[in-house]
Design brief:
single chain, 338 residues, mainly alpha, three-stranded parallel beta sheet, two-stranded parallel ribbon, 14 helices, 54% helix, elongated
């Protein structure tokens, strides 16, 4: 059977953390072998809430590319491309905006949740929400359909965004004829990874993340401050590992040691300091292969740029073909040759 097209992406807002890895990137690496995979560096979408800081977005484009390469995305198997270099996406976004109402965007659970987060973090009021931010699900629909995306790897919290894309596709096809592909979801294996402070979300702005590029010194500082069982006062007190963030992270990177860690913790035979030190060692062992690849690409930025340029050119060729079909369906191919 012919491989289906897969489309997903990430905004370049900084270096990736282990929440990105277990929540998405690990899955992307596995999926790239089974699909024609397109991995988008969504710099245009990053500008929806960084429009006044374009230098940040620009600097992080290569950082994200290096993260993708470091975790195992293979440019000979997958296409890594920069969103802003595909003008067909912007054109599709404009056309799709006629197929979705503002009320529908405001009802999108994912959008509502993200707006609420920004209000809590930055005190942003409702009238401070930009058209670009509210409409980013429309842009995402353009991302997916520009490459005939048939499958999209998402977490459960992202399903409303994909359903919005499917609605837009159905409305477009109903209006102009069967032109676009309606994508299906591939649910990621891992749910959102909690922060070191126990917060349900790990994030750069929350200061509770371990980054894939963190040094041992940085990881040690963060892990030593991680939240543990507050009932464990003395070293030999028994504890409940299920409410300890150190054990939570041990479940991610210390799977062979996990039964022993759990047993010793419950029996009061394991101190928190020793447990944290073991987590640091295991975390660094886990991160080592990625950090070695990162060091190589950081030393060879010309290779990263070449991969991005080749991938973007390849992606645009596909988007141009899709755009030609869209213009024909919409009867706006005025000067196209037969």
């Amino acid at each position: 059977m012919a491989k289906k097209n897969l489309l997903t992406g990430m905004r370049p807002t900084g270096k990736a953390h282990i929440g990105h890895y277990f929540g998405a990137l690990e899955n992307w690496v596995a999926l790239q072998h089974n699909y024609h995979s397109y991995f988008e560096i969504a710099d245009v979408q990053a500008l929806t809430d960084n429009f006044n800081n374009p230098e940040k977005v620009r600097a992080n484009v290569r950082e994200l590319a290096i993260d993708l390469l470091s975790v195992g995305i293979d440019p000979t198997k997958a296409t890594i491309f920069i969103q802003s270099f595909i003008p067909e996406i912007a054109e599709l976004t404009v056309y799709y905006s006629n197929h979705v109402t503002i009320a529908r965007l405001q009802r999108n659970p994912t959008v509502k949740h993200e707006i609420k987060q920004k209000q809590e973090l930055f005190g942003m009021r409702g009238e401070g929400v930009t058209y670009g931010f509210l409409g980013y699900p429309v842009s995402q629909a353009a991302d997916i359909t520009a490459f005939r995306g048939e499958v999209v790897p998402v977490g459960e919290d992202q399903l409303p965004l994909l359903e919005q894309c499917r609605e837009i596709v159905r409305k477009f096809n109903h209006t102009y004829g069967d032109t676009l592909v309606e994508p299906d979801a591939v649910l990621t294996e891992h749910k959102r990874i909690k922060g070191l402070d126990g917060n349900e979300k790990m994030g750069k702005s929350l200061g509770n993340a371990i980054f894939l590029a963190d040094s041992k010194e940085e990881v040690t500082k963060k892990v030593m401050a991680a939240v543990t069982d507050p009932a464990k006062i003395r070293k030999d007190d028994p504890a409940n590992p299920e409410i300890c963030m150190v054990y939570y992270y041990h479940q991610l990177v210390s799977k062979e040691d996990l039964p022993t860690i759990c047993q010793e913790c419950k029996a009061g035979h394991r101190g928190c300091v020793a447990c944290k030190k073991q987590l640091v060692e295991n975390m660094m062992t886990f991160l080592k292969p990625m950090q070695e690849k990162r060091a190589y690409y950081e030393a060879h930025p010309e290779e990263v740029d070449a991969i991005l340029l080749e991938g973007t050119n390849r992606a645009r060729t596909v988007a141009q073909a899709v755009m030609k079909e869209v213009r024909q369906a919409m009867k706006i191919d005025y000067f196209e040759e037969d």
